[in-house]
Design a protein that fits this description.
The complex is a heterodimer of chains A (about 500) and B (about 100). With about 500 residues, chain A is α+β, with helices and mostly antiparallel strands. Helices cover about 40% and strands about 20% of the residues of chain A. Chain A has 3 domains: about 280 residues, no CATH class; about 110 residues, no CATH class; about 60 residues, Orthogonal Bundle (Arc Repressor Mutant, subunit A). In chain A, the strands form 3 sheets. Chain A has a 9-stranded mixed sheet with strand order 3-6-7-10-1-11-12-13-14. In chain A, strands 5-4-15 form a 3-stranded antiparallel sheet, with no helix packed on it. Chain A has a two-stranded antiparallel sheet with strand order 8-9. In chain A, β13 and β14 form a beta hairpin. Chain B has a domain of about 50 residues: Histone, subunit A (Orthogonal Bundle). Helix content of chain B is about 45%, strand content about 10%. In chain B, α1 crosses α2. The chains are: A alpha+beta (about 500), B mainly alpha (about 100). Chains A and B meet through β2, α2, β8 and β9 of A and α1, β1, α3 and β3 of B. β2 of chain A pairs parallel with β1 of chain B.
């Protein structure tokens, strides 16, 4: 454990006056294959414990692995989408460690021969493009899930023993590793967030993973170090794990900048260690200290034949790639007729693909943008859940907008429908029905309310009779109040003017 | 033969392999392990004398791209999976506490 004394956290902006952050991001993508990386076990999320296991993924003696062709195909497509070279020949390697989450006592991974390497992807933050260089993307397998029993609330420290479910052990993972990212310090948190967000969008577009951070199918580790402003030597880095949302990626970078600055200001040394991110307060705490003991003794996996993708196969897969992100942004902006500012805000909110899917489901681009960046972004901020992970689909958002376009909802009622859908009450139509949110536009009910409003406000009625049409607003307000907001304001106005002209 | 491994080196290897060794055992293995290293060095010598034309193999057969289709096949029942475990609880494998040395 760290013996360091606690030093104060330096405010982010102040830290940047003295230091420059250097980041590296490691992202694990759990592939959405039907079976595991090296055996035919199913990969369904949420299955009963230890019901998707076999001798291979349990590491039983004599069991032999065989590579999943689809996983290799996905790895190559991910590599190509990240502008990587694809190895002509590469091998798997054993990463040896004793930890019960991996029953074989090694993880089958790749070491110095990754299937994809030397790539890049361009992300956009506040209208500026930043190139993130990709060092490598390699194939490996996921670990089992541990449940720590005894001690406080499932935490590893103080647990009496642990319980292991190996359903996840052996599910294919692609680990994507960046080179060091050096961007202006004030942009670093947003660039990190934008990069992880872009990887998610790419994985979904490739159809290789559902890439949900909240379910762990996309996981980010944030490596960060500081160096005195204007210098070039790299400082000691920390590796923050457990970063489970795009928002947390940004917060983790901010927090670690402040923490490192405090340590360096005090003349102390940053300890190279793994740290855990805490969603609740945005802080990190020490995990394992990296030391010489972490010696994985990699060696080539003797049970698996090398992977040598033919160039013809690689080119065939290149033909299946989705539109590159930067081209897609340009095309969508033109199609949607968004201003640069609209586009920048949409990208910044991580809503580009959500808006795109909402538009594809029939909503007008500006309407789609309005809901995702307004109402839903507010709820995302309030709950700390990423926009993409809110329990509402783009199709449902388009459905609500369609009800507005059909005159059956106004914006106020639509917000109640959002409440219902987000609370799991069903589809927009079901929420409208069960909560009785439909806009009243039939003249019978409205006429009655209009007559009452006119009777209750004779002065206003006289003004309108005298031709001051703008005074109708007061009567519309009175009707809306009586109808609890569920009146069709346009029709109310018409009825008022009919009666008073 | 190579010189003996230091006590520290043997202790490091032992800790990586999760083997507890007495000082006497450390010294005995420190003297014996170089024989294995020499043996591997002999293989290394063959590789070097063969030159760049002969690539070292990591698999006994000169084959590549041995894949299977992404189609599920039956695994073990949960009872069978847990049958060999020294202990289980809540349908999971029970293991001693992790990070015991740190807790």
């Amino acid at each position: 454990m760290s013996t360091q004394t606690k030093t104060p956290l330096v405010p982010f902006d102040e830290a940047l006056t003295r230091y420059e952050p250097v980041m590296g991001l490691e992202v694990h993508v759990e592939l959405g294959t039907n079976t595991k990386m090296f055996c035919g076990c199913a990969t369904e999320f949420g299955a009963e414990p230890n019901t998707q296991v076999c001798p291979v993924c349990l590491g039983l003696p004599g069991a032999l692995p065989v590579v999943n062709a689809k996983a290799v195909e996905s790895a190559i497509r991910i590599g190509l989408a990240l502008n990587c070279e694809i190895a002509e020949w590469c091998r798997f390697a054993r990463k040896n460690y004793f930890y019960p989450d991996q029953p074989k006592n090694f993880q089958t991974s790749q070491y110095d021969e990754p299937i994809a390497f030397d790539g890049y992807t361009d992300v956009e933050v506040d209208g500026e493009v930043y190139r993130i260089e990709i060092e490598r993307a390699h194939m490996e397998e996921d670990t089992g899930k541990s449940l720590h029993v005894g001690g406080a609330t499932g935490r590893i420290h103080g647990a009496d023993h642990s319980l292991l479910d190996y359903n996840r052990a052996g599910i294919p993972l692609i680990e994507i590793v960046t080179r060091t990212i050096e961007v202006p310090g004030d942009k670093a948190p947003l660039v990190a967030r934008a990069y992880v967000n872009q990887l998610r969008d790419l994985m979904v577009a490739l159809g290789v993973s559902d890439a949900r951070m909240d379910q762990g199918s996309l996981r980010a580790d944030v490596n960060l170090s500081l160096r005195p402003a204007g210098t070039t030597a790299l400082g000691t880095r920390s590796e923050t794990k457990n970063v489970n949302s795009f928002r947390s990626v940004e917060r983790a970078v901010r927090y670690e900048v402040g923490r490192h600055a405090g340590i360096l200001d005090a003349g102390q040394k940053v300890v190279q260690e793994t740290r855990h991110f805490h969603e609740s307060d945005g802080t990190t705490s020490p995990g394992r200290e990296k030391s010489d003991a972490e010696d994985y003794r990699y060696f080539p996996e003797p049970d698996l034949a090398p992977v040598a993708p033919s160039r013809a196969w690689v080119e065939e897969l290149r033909g299946t790639l989705p539109e590159p992100p930067s081209e897609r942004r340009k095309r969508l902006q033109a199609e949607w007729d968004f201003s640069d500012l609209d586009m920048r805000d949409t990208i910044g909110a991580g809503a580009l693909e959500l808006v795109a899917a909402t538009v594809a489901a029939g909503a007008a681009p500006q309407a789609a943008r309005k809901w995702w960046l307004g109402e839903l972004a507010r709820r995302s901020n309030d709950t700390g859940v990423d926009l993409a992970d809110l329990p509402i689909t783009p199709e449902q958002v388009a459905g609500i907008q369609a009800l507005i376009d059909a005159g059956r909802l106004n914006d106020k009622l639509a917000r109640d429908v959002f409440d219902g859908v987000l609370a799991g009450e069903g589809t927009p139509e079901e929420v409208v029905a069960s909560r009785g949110l439909e806009l009243v536009s039939d003249d019978g009910a409205l006429g009655e309310a209009v007559d009452q409003a006119i009777a209750a406000n004779p002065d206003v009625a006289d003004k309108i009779r005298d031709g001051k049409v703008q005074a109708a607003g007061a009567l519309i307000g009175a009707v809306m109040k009586q109808m609890r907001g569920q009146a069709d304001a346009g029709r109310v106005r018409e009825l008022i003017l009919e009666r008073l002209s | 033969m190579s010189s003996p491994l230091s006590r520290e080196d043997v202790a490091h290897l032992a800790s990586l392999a999760r083997i507890s060794l007495s000082v006497a055992e450390l010294d005995r293995l420190g003297a014996e392990l170089p024989a294995i290293l020499d043996h591997v060095a002999a293989v290394q010598g063959v590789v070097e004398s063969a030159g760049a034309d002969v690539a070292p193999m990591s698999h006994p057969a000169p084959i590549t791209n041995v894949f299977r289709a992404d189609e599920p096949s039956p695994g073990l029942s949960r009872d069978d999976a847990l049958a060999g475990a020294p202990a289980s609880e809540e349908d999971r494998f029970l293991v001693p506490k992790i990070l015991g040395e740190e807790a």
